[in-house]
Write a structure and sequence with these properties.
Layout: E1 5-7, H1 10-13, H2 21-27, E2 36-38, H3 46-50, H4 57-69, H5 75-85, E3 92-96, E4 99-103, H6 113-127, E5 133-138, H7 142-151, E6 157-164, H8 170-177, E7 183-189, H9 192-203, E8 213-215, H10 221-236, E9 245-250, H11 255-265, E10 270-277, H12 282-289, H13 314-320, E11 324-325, E12 331-333, H14 337-343, E13 344-348, H15 351-365, H16 371-384, E14 392-396, H17 404-411, E15 430-433, H18 436-448, E16 450-459, E17 468-484, E18 488-494, H19 507-519, E19 524-530, H20 541-556, H21 563-578, H22 586-591, E20 594-600, E21 603-609, E22 615-621, H23 627-632, H24 640-659, H25 662-668, H26 675-678, H27 685-694, E23 699-702, E24 709-713, H28 716-732, E25 737-742, E26 750-751
Parallel strand pairs: 4-14, 5-6, 5-8, 6-7, 7-15, 9-10, 9-14, 10-13, 18-19
Antiparallel strand pairs: 1-2, 3-4, 11-12, 16-17, 16-26, 17-19, 17-20, 20-21, 22-24, 22-25, 23-24
Length: about 750
């Protein structure tokens, strides 16, 4: 029989209904602004808990979650969700006999938030009752990146992440801003409490009902349930003979510690739950005095995920102990404080104590702990001053590499970077004031419009005429699109050059029409185009517009087509304006990375990989070379020896991208057929090429049809010198140019 869920505001709001797990999952908050709680907490027997010993984490998680969800989702499906969600290690370290550190930082974003986020993504995909949903989440750093990563690319799902502008670390900010796709990061000019308040206001606003809003914050009960499993797993791998143990949990919004409280009520022998806070000490003060006073504004501390002055989940604690606390921090009924004090100890840890604990821990054990873990360790030390215990587990919530500034301050060293964080790049975000109306208008506008970026490309790579292309970072076109009843209209173009807004003469319009045709849709689309690429540059300008438009239309009409399937309508659009059917620029604009075209009859495209250490210097002279002109001067016949040479080098370039081999790519960037002819259209070509080579470039070639030239190196220092030399060489011929040092783009077209 399914467990039903009630609102924490039930005793004073008038809302007495019970809802199913699915309703609680997709509603997020109760209609009376309360939080959902299970009517009854299922139990484990002593024997069942002992039997968990030695089981992998995903199995323990399944057993815990199945207790709550047995009536809502089939066992087989739940096993599949937990197996997929928890495909990483969950280490327990014992730096000192009887004291353990539970490392919850091995997931894809190096944070404990991965556990709940990945479960939520899996369960929502299985139970989604609507065609599309909008997830709105507030984050103090780690929640946002975990939710964004978990829900990235899920069809029919939009994710908006609100984070406090000045209270996330540089690493956390890069994580949030770089997710992209259906995930949008929004920097709020305020604190985490402001972000959380905005989210709650949005859920209470009936005018946003069309967005199908749901929450991925810990206000959602589906964020709480997965966190119960930590404690059963830690207990099963530390305790003997069903002994009682202590858990010390760093706490901000109290969702993590609530998992421990519920685990105790399910039968886990928890001797004491230590709720460790930073200088936002509203709960320790409440436990000591019996008076709840939220901290407004919240205090900025090194353990930034805990900078919460009014924890949402405290309302759930009140509920469990017979009280009522509303979203504004007003107690309508006090909980049983004596009972609460019996099971919970709480301590506030200062920034100074946090730093000293990191230092002490490193001196004693040669182990680095991050600020939140340090708060938990220090709180356990304070508890031990007046209490004895046999075993204790402290929770480490994130990898130290996410807090390099704090670790460097404490230890004078830079923590090593885990592979999950090694390749994150600067991304994009929007900024809003801490004002609800601004957020509301933003959500309504973005619900109507889809915004897509497609990158610049280098086609005809070296000897790979019409068959080799790659996407590059930093340059590209943007298309905004929304549904209409019929037809394709281009209502706005932002471009340095004049472009037709006739959809039959613009690649964006043609690609949109071809995509609608392929989808079999009778509806239409309105397009706004922002050109970031100059026309006739050889950087796939028309291809980028077409790719962005096709991708946007596909999103608007349900994401029914893969990127591979979109190549054909985009290439048809390119053909209509350039006079040739070729995909060495359209395919990488969509797919990202490097691509190889086997044949055009039928079109057969393969993404062949990328080269990580490849620095690309792009120099675009103020010369116009039209694709039709560049193709019109090509030779009709070529010597066999030149054909064989180009073919061999094309094969080697393909291998280079497949293997990620920079040296092989550099050796193979040679063209005896196309470049000698097309270079005549680019004034100063030989001088510019030689200038680049003289400064250490390992290869120079024409991008696409030209006039842009690209040079390659694996040295950032050399790249700047090469760029300046190429610009100077063009200038000596009286030609101004634009230049950039960039890298490969591996994403291709993406929603922004």
């Amino acid at each position: 029989m399914s467990i039903l869920y009630h609102s924490t505001n039930r005793d004073f709001s008038g809302f007495k209904d019970r809802v199913t797990f699915k309703e609680a999952l997709f509603t997020g908050m109760a209609p009376d602004n309360g939080l959902f709680m299970p009517d009854n907490i299922p139990q484990f027997s002593k024997e069942q808990i002992i039997a968990m010993k030695g089981k992998p984490y995903q199995e323990v998680a399944f057993e815990v979650l199945n207790k709550f969800l047995a009536g809502d989702i089939e066992e087989k499906q739940l096993r599949e969700i937990t197996a997929k969600a928890y495909n990483f290690e969950v280490p327990l370290e014992e730096p000192e006999k009887g004291t353990y550190i539970l490392r919850l930082d091995k997931g894809p974003t190096c944070s404990f938030k991965d556990f709940a986020a990945r479960f939520m993504a899996g369960i929502m995909q299985r139970l989604n009752p609507k065609e599309s949903i909008t997830i709105l989440v507030a984050t103090s750093g780690d929640t946002g990146s975990a939710i964004g990563e978990a829900f990235r690319g899920i069809p029919g799902t939009r994710v908006y992440i609100l984070y406090p502008e000045d209270e996330v670390t540089y690493v956390q900010k890069r994580q949030l801003d770089s997710i992209g796709g259906n995930v949008k990061a929004i920097s709020i000019k305020g604190k985490f409490d402001d972000c959380q308040k905005l989210v709650k206001e949005a859920f209470a606003d009936s005018e946003l009902s069309s967005l199908s809003l749901t929450s991925a914050n810990s206000i959602n009960i589906a964020r709480i349930l997965p966190q119960i499993a930590y404690y059963f797993y830690a207990y099963a791998n530390t305790a003997e003979n069903f002994e009682s143990i202590v858990f010390s949990v760093p706490s901000g919004n109290f969702g993590n510690s609530l998992g421990c409280e519920i685990a105790r009520r399910m039968g886990l022998p928890v001797e004491k739950l230590i709720i460790a806070t930073n200088e936002n000490n509203e709960f320790p003060e409440f436990l000591n005095t019996g008076i709840y006073q939220k901290i407004e504004p919240s205090r900025k501390c090194l353990s930034n995920a805990m900078n919460v002055g009014n924890p949402s989940n405290l309302a759930r604690y009140f509920d469990l102990y017979g009280g009522n606390l509303d979203k504004d921090g007003i107690a309508h009924k006090m909980p049983d404080l004596n009972e609460m004090r019996k099971h919970i100890f709480s301590a506030a840890i200062s920034d100074e104590e946090t730093i000293e604990t990191i230092r002490e821990f490193y001196r004693k054990y040669n182990l680095i702990i991050e600020p939140h873990g340090a708060v938990a360790v220090k709180a356990l030390q304070k508890y031990s001053e007046n209490n004895k215990f046999s075993k204790a587990v402290c929770i480490e919530t994130a990898d130290p590499a996410k807090f390099p500034e704090t670790i460097e301050k404490a230890l004078g060293i830079t923590p090593s970077t885990p592979h999950q964080l090694a390749n994150i790049n600067d991304g994009m975000h929007d900024t809003l004031p801490a004002d609800y109306n601004s957020l509301k208008q933003y959500l309504l506008h973005n619900a109507e419009w889809v915004k897509v970026f497609a990158p610049a490309t280098i086609g005809n790579i070296g000897p790979g005429f019409d068959i080799l292309g790659m996407a590059v970072k930093g340059l590209g076109d943007i298309v905004e699109a929304r549904k209409t009843d019929s037809g394709v209209k281009i209502t706005h173009i932002e471009s340095k050059a004049e472009l037709s807004n006739d959809p039959e003469k613009n690649t964006a319009g043609i690609a949109a029409m071809e995509t609608l045709k392929l989808l079999g849709e009778k509806g239409g689309v309105e397009i706004r185009l922002k050109k970031g690429l100059p026309l006739g540059s050889g950087l796939g300008s028309s291809a980028a517009s077409a790719a962005a438009a096709a991708y946007a239309v596909n999103i608007l009409y349900g994401n029914k087509l893969s990127k591979d399937e979109l190549i054909m309508p985009v290439t048809k659009a390119e053909e209509a304006v350039s006079g040739g059917f070729f995909a060495d620029n359209t395919a990488p604009a969509l797919l990202g990375g490097a691509i190889l075209i086997r044949t055009y009859e039928p079109l057969d495209v393969t993404k062949i990989g990328s080269i990580k250490n490849l620095k690309i210097i792009l120099v675009t002279p103020d010369i116009v070379v039209l694709t039709k002109e560049a193709r019109g001067i090509l030779p009709k016949d070529v010597p066999m020896q030149d054909f064989v040479f180009n073919m061999a080098n094309s094969c080697m370039i393909t291998m280079a991208f497949a293997k990620g081999d920079y040296d092989l790519f550099a050796r193979s960037l040679n063209d005896r057929i196309i470049e000698p002819v097309r270079s005549r259209l680019i004034k100063g070509f030989e001088d510019v090429k030689n200038a680049a080579l003289s400064k250490g470039a390992d290869g120079v070639a024409i991008s696409g049809s030209g006039p842009t030239l690209f040079a390659i190196t694996n040295s950032s220092e050399k790249a700047e010198k090469i760029k300046n030399a190429m610009v100077s060489a063009f200038a000596q011929h009286g030609i101004s140019s634009e230049s950039i040092v960039t890298e490969m783009n591996n994403e291709g077209a993406k929603q922004i």
